[in-house]
Amino acid sequence: MRPALQTRLRRAAAPLLFLLLCVLGAIAAQITPEFILRELLARFARNALLVLSLLIPILAGLGLNFGIVIGAMAGQVAAILVTTWGVGGIAGFALACAVAVPVAVALGILTGLLFNRARGREMVTGLIAGFFANGVYQLVFLFALGSLIPFHVHELLLPQGYGLRNTIDLTGIQYAVDDLVRVQVPLEGQLVRVPVATFLVIGVFCGLSLLFQRTKLGQELRAMGQDAHVAATAGIDVDRNRVIAVVISTLLAALGQLLFLQNLGTLNTYSSHEQVGMFAIAALLVSGATVSRASVGQALLGTLLFHTLFVVSPLAGKALLGDAQIGEYFRVFVAYAVITVALALHAWQQAHHERAAQRG
Questions:
Q1: Which of 335, 293, 327 has the alpha carbon at shortest distance from 311?
Q2: What is the distance between the alpha carbons of residues 238 and 221, in angstroms, rounded to a whole number?
Q3: Which residue among 35, 52, 134, 160 sits deepest, i.e. has the most Cβ atoms within 10 Å of its Cβ?
């Protein structure tokens, strides 16, 4: 078998396996294609931009940016502020984006500087930085708001008079982007919203990502991803470009979380952001992407496959074992399993290259 064909088959193994799992699960639960399509219309629109936010750091050689949870928190801060101010509709969503951008950029710069100090350990550093940022977020919104920080919207506070409620209603900005172009299609006897404007936004960011990779900065990031030492020798400011890559990723994650929240319509104040990084990374990896190589097409394919499994697995678990929770456990297991395998393969490949370099 030709080496090129072997490489293609290896890259296709993960998406084909997930496709097979989705098909078998749908058959076992007797799920109709219309039901899957109805669910995927919303899920894909919610999550695609979050998965796309992972691409630039991979291009720059930073690996999987577990720190996108920090960007998600920036988006949530903006959503909370806009809800507090009572600004709704597309104006409220635009204001939330305007608030999220400087917050995400500032946090992205700090995260990028941290990654420069932890060169070679960016993935675990991003994971720990996310935990730290989550602790600060919880401290501010669970304790400081209403006690140390003045806050006068009492209906959003917990009964003790400080700390935000666990769930915040975002009806003001719900479907703000989804309903810019109102399209509904009949599926299984129901009229289902098609978020055309959200798909257009995602398409724009896909196009911008492809164009960015052809710019001078994009080519510099690609060179850094291939060999940072050679890139530095060629005169590329590696440290600065690494920070820029993290800032772009954090910013896209903030905007992606806002798209997610406007589609969902509610904010779980202390948990909506917690699994953002894990699920986005798992969605990217199931497409055949790796820690060092990923494309826009793989991001979109992975989002479709991963969230198809999200739709199918609880129903398949209930049909096969009488308990939908089994399906929930299975999809969480799959999410962590694909990340573990990807990181293990990355470590093995790094060790192999280091041994080859020593022999050379």
A1: 327
A2: 8
A3: 52
